[in-house]
Amino acid sequence: xxxxxxxxxxxxxxxxxxxxxxxxxYLLLLVKTPAxxxxxxxxxxxxxxxxxxxxxxxxxxxxxxxxxxxxxxMHIQSASPLLFxxxxxxxxxxxxxxxxxxxxxxxxxxxxxxxAHRIKxxxxxxxxxGLIEMFAAEVETKGPLFPAFLRLRxxxxxxxxxxxxxxxxxxxxxxxxxxxxxxxxxxxxTTFVAxxxxxxxxxxxxxxx
Length: 209
Description:
Elements (H helix, E strand, L loop, with lengths): L1 E11 L3 E4 L6 E6 L3 E5 L2 E5 L3 E5 L5 E5 L3 E10 L15 E2 L3 H16 L6 H21 L5 H13 L7 H8 L3 H12 L3 H17 L1
Antiparallel strand pairs: 1-8, 2-7, 3-6, 3-8, 4-5, 4-7, 6-9
Helix pairs in contact: 1-2, 3-6, 4-5
């Protein structure tokens, strides 16, 4: 793989990107702020510390969901597929330990990218491969119920005004209430109730703005 461009950028509340045909290379985003991403089901609001990887040529459209939008971005060229079959390209993935693992590694790669070190290309390639594997692990290690939990979380942030209850969510996913809470915290490092409150606060801030 080869990194063509990368950086970190902050924009205002009016920030919006829409590329019908995407880029001819992979686009990796590590988004530090709440954001809105367009999917086949419409616009989905995502919390801070969310990652997303787009395939070459894949449509992408996203915008700020608050007073500002900040992301770390990377254009990656690769002759072979970066990740396994079935990986959810174009779908937001929550990053566990984003501040402890993902952002520090990105900063190291960014520093090497703009350096003049003799061996920087091999260092960048190795570190980027590690970053991609860490990203893949966020999906692989979560188990078979993770996609259903992820869809539930997306629905909460898309429609926080609904009457969200843990009992109903657990019944919908076919698990006990106790196991639902255990898995939700394991998957997203927060509670279902906290996410509902966060989603409602974000929507209120957007409406007030």
